[in-house]
């Protein structure tokens, strides 16, 4: 099993969460919520209003998201879904655990909630330079105040 941190449309309540719970694509088990240890720019870009974490450590915000344990089949699905390695690149990042739901005792959960984990994150180093000038967010919600609703693939 691998740990994956999702910050955009794959989170609970977001337009692509259905893929995370589709066992035909593999297994993804919600572990908890976290945020990036380093700051990154999270932007909403392109004509489909897609959230992108730009791989520019030290710029932007500590990005909030969810931590999942995924099997190899789900990891392969996510690579394909995220257009890896062209659109996004899957890299290891340090994620601060904010809330932990993983199995174990209460003491273990409390210790986990104060820890830092290495998780795979789909960020991008291949973006148009003007994206650096877009507004940066610390958390993504497709129906947020920004008014930039994500356009589902089936609607493009």
TrEMBL record:
Keyword Signal: no
Cellular component GO terms held in the UniProt record: cytosol
GO molecular function terms listed in the Swiss-Prot or TrEMBL record: gamma-glutamylaminecyclotransferase activity; transferase activity
InterPro entries: AIG2-like_dom, GGACT, GGCT-like, GGCT-like_sf
Keyword flag Hydrolase: no
Any GO BP annotation: modified amino acid catabolic process
EC assignment: 4.3.2.8
Sorted UniProt keywords: Lyase, Transferase
Catalyzed reactions per annotation: epsilon-(gamma-L-glutamyl)-L-lysine = 5-oxo-L-proline + L-lysine
Entry annotation: catalytic residues: 82 (proton acceptor)
Domain Gamma-glutamylcyclotransferase AIG2-like residue range list: 4-122
Function of the protein: Catalyzes the formation of 5-oxo-L-proline from L-gamma-glutamyl-L-epsilon-lysine.
Family: Belongs to the gamma-glutamylcyclotransferase family.
Protein's name in the database: Gamma-glutamylaminecyclotransferase
Organism listed in the record: Pomatostomus ruficeps
Organism phylogeny: Eukaryota, Metazoa, Chordata, Craniata, Vertebrata
């Amino acid at each position: 099993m691998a740990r994956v941190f999702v910050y955009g449309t794959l989170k609970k309540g977001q337009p692509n969460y259905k893929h995370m719970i589709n066992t035909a694509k593999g297994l993804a088990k919600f572990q908890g919520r976290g945020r990036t240890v380093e700051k990154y720019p999270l932007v909403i870009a392109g004509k489909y209003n897609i959230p992108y974490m730009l791989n520019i450590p030290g710029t932007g915000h500590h990005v909030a998201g969810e931590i999942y344990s995924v099997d190899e089949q789900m990891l392969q699905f996510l690579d394909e879904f995220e257009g890896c390695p062209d659109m996004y690149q899957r890299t290891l990042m340090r994620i601060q655990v904010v809330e932990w739901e993983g199995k174990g005792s209460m003491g273990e959960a409390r210790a986990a909630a104060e820890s830092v984990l290495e998780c795979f994150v789909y960020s991008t180093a291949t973006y148009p330079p003007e994206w650096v000038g877009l507004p940066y967010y610390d958390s993504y919600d497709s129906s947020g105040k920004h008014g930039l609703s994500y356009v589902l693939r089936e609607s493009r």
